[in-house]
Amino acid sequence: MPLYKTITPNSQTTVKIWKIEESYDQLINPLDLKPESLTRVLGMKSELHQRGFLSVRHLLKAFGYTDQDLYYDTNGKPHLKDGKHISITHSFTFSGVIISDTDVGIDIEQRRDKIAVIAKKFVEYEFEYLDKQASDYINKLTVIWGIKESLYKLFATPGMLFREHFLVIPFTMHDDQTVCWIDYKGLKKRYTANYLEFEGFTCAYVIE
């Protein structure tokens, strides 16, 4: 079982990360999927996406849940039937799930230089402290993207924009934690953000 990492940031919150090494058949055979989940996975054109979807269901099992315990609201935000808060992510060969008593969001991204090309689409305030010549510029951009993606998943409100409505305060790659804000239509809310790197990937997660 390639459960890659388990993190417990506080007594109410657990993060589990899966390294996707199994074949599609190895992943789907042990699972009992709801009809709508089976329809969804069979309709995916990419086997990589199928394996990501299925690995998340194995992470649910690692938490003691099944596919039947998970449902999505009209904004596409996942929920658990017992009322716990959940967020889900998968990127290429890794997937992650965070479950907590409070609202949470998680994102895993593969670190790639091309993120610098689209930085202006999701960075504004953060350019004040970013150094484009620094060796960790791509690392920091990936952390900022992951944190903002996590905030977006947590809030799940159409119309929120990464560049305008989410702020990440200055941080270093050695800290593994920073503070971020949502500033949207009069709402200002502060969150703790955590981040880590492994095997060319970056994981960020936000806890209310």
TrEMBL record:
Keywords: Transferase. It comes from the Bacteria. The keyword Transferase applies. The keyword Phosphoprotein does not apply. Residues 104-185 form the 4'-phosphopantetheinyl transferase domain. GO terms for molecular function: transferase activity. This is 4'-phosphopantetheinyl transferase superfamily protein. It comes from Olleya sediminilitoris.
